[in-house]
Amino acid sequence: MTYVRVEVSRGRKGPRRQVRLLVDTGAADSILPRLFLQRLGIRPEWREEYELANGESMFRDVGRLYIHYQGRSVETLAAFGEPGDASVLGAYSMEGLRLEVDPHSRRVRRKRKLLAVTATAG
Q1: 94 is a domain residue
Q2: Is residue 78 domain-resident?
Q3: The predicted structure's pLDDT at residue 70
């Protein structure tokens, strides 16, 4: 399992709080404890259905926030975690921060290469 410490805030600027998250590239959105998000002033904007690995569904509120890591900041989505939910850094946030997990060391690193597609006239 890979964990990372990030800072979270309601806006790009303003108070930040540090949190340790499990990196889960199989999870679409990040999940942070509801109370943690509420204390930062982050409010739910809608409710989303998530499918768990065992096929069950869960419904969680979703809000927008900023995640800051190694000098980069990105607006992202996070589910409001309930008791028993893991605190997770999901794929959407990882992509926004241009991060990946090194398959050998299992550490989070900046992406080495970004895919770009170009169109050619022909």
Answers
A1: yes
A2: yes
A3: 93
How many whole angstroms separate alpha carbon 32 and alpha carbon 17?
A: 12
19-43, pLDDT tens digit by residue?
999 999 888 999 999 999 999 999 9
What pairs with residue 18 in β-bridges? 7
DSSP state of 98: T
Q: Are 11 and 64 in contact (CB under 8 A)?
A: no
**Residue 13 corresponds to which tokens in the numbers above?**
């600027």
Domain extent at residue 104 = 3-110
Largest CA distance in the chain: 57
Residue with tokens 């190694």: 70
- Mean per-residue pLDDT for 109-118? 75
The pTM of this model reads: 0.85
